[in-house]
Amino acid sequence: MKLPSPAKLNLFLHITGQRSDGYHDLQTLFQLTDFCDTLTFDINEQDSVSISPDILTLPTSDNLIFKAAELLKPYRKYAYHGVDIVLEKQLPMGGGIGGGSSNAATTLLALNTLWQCGLSLQTLANLGLQLGADVPVFVMGTSAFAQGVGEQLQPVELETPYFLIIKPDCHVSTGQIFTDKHLTRDTPPIKISHALTLGGRNDCLNVVIKHNPEVNDAYLWLKNHGDAKLTGTGACLFLSFNNQQDAERLRASTPEKWQAWVCQGCNLSPTHTALNQWIEKNKA
Question: What positions does the domain GHMP kinase N-terminal occupy (predicted)?
């Protein structure tokens, strides 16, 4: 089975409070995109999970793909089934576009089918929450208004513009951002109708650019061309366009020191589309 594993953008990110356990309450709009990694899954009969190629900066035991597979092992129909996974990486690490969480969700969705686990999407999302707050939105597979730590999801139909995504050459530490004493933690909650019509801001932006001059430089450059936004707590910035040509034109003029991609928003995850096609094809 070969599945895409998409990026997400946070169209806004409000932090509405801090919990006693250290986690933060938030509100956000998750926009799924057609910018994807690709994962290939081959079942083996050695009860082993392998991932290739190796990511030098990430031990296999810390890889969310591996952790997702291990989470599903107790639910397999056949206990001797393992899996060999090949990851074709396109999404930048530490960018705030959910690459690791998306890979974990794609793994849960794929192995739920291949290992014949028979779990519901909600059960998979609940398992995924153990791996990270962004995993459930990728499991459920729709653009969504999110609350709580990001796990309380309400599917929404969003416009599907084209986006220019820029990644400065730096890795933003989520932990550093959420522990910064200057982070805004008291933004008043808004209703979903407000979120869909008026949007909002990213409460992490000022802290991210304070700690990361490269992000600040890219933000100032992109801001000259429109309503530049930061996604999540990562390094990636984005700008929306009504058509692909305008997005590609600006990408072509992006300074070479930054990575840049053009993608389109979507309301149904490419993972779900491809998985449903695989299931239909293999029914016989």
Answer: 63-141
Fold of 162-266: Alpha-Beta Plaits (3.30.70)
Annotated binding-site residues read: 92-102
Q: How confident is the model at residue 284 (pLDDT cuts 50, 70, 90)?
A: low
Q: Determine contact, residues 211/185, Cβ cutoff 8 Å.
A: no
What residues does 15 pair with on adjacent strands?
26
Q: How far apart are CA 245 and CA 228, in angstroms?
A: 18
Distances (CA, A) of 251 to 66, 97, 167, 255, 260: 34, 18, 12, 9, 6
pLDDT in tens, 92-110: 988 899 999 999 999 999 9
Architecture of domain 2-156+269-281: 2-Layer Sandwich (3.30)
Hey, which residues are catalytic here?
A: 8, 134
Query: Which residue, 283, 271, 273, is CA-closest to 138?
Result: 271
Q: Which residues contact 46 (CB under 8 A, 6 or more apart)?
A: 80, 82
- pLDDT number for residue 109: 98
The pLDDT of residue 94: 83
What's the Cα-to-Cα distance from 89 to each of 38, 53, 81, 99, rounded to whole Å? 7, 10, 25, 9
Q: Could you tell me which residues are annotated as the binding site for ATP?
A: 92-102
